[in-house]
Amino acid sequence: MKTMTTEEIINLLDANEDLNVIDVREADEVEQGMIPGAVHIPLGSIPERADELDKTKEYILVCRGGVRSAKAGEYLESQGFEVINLEGGMMAYDGELEFK
């Protein structure tokens, strides 16, 4: 599985790149802020919601520290999706936040 640093994602966001970010944290964690444009799909919901995703797109997965997003990535890769795990997760991310 590919990985990306938080510095890399911040640079892509600053360049207004079209990113597909999935936040796999729980609802109470997401309330503390998400990466702008991210879609919230809790880790436990990934298998039943995978059909909402497009196999022609690459997804950046994020959680609090990088472990849950790696688990989600392993599952999605096994289903034929292209994924990137955000190293260090939201604990390492110091960019702009979006509140939903």
Automatic annotation (TrEMBL):
Residues of the Rhodanese domain: 15-99
Gene3D superfamilies per UniProt: Rhodanese-like domain
Protein name per Swiss-Prot or TrEMBL: Rhodanese-like domain-containing protein
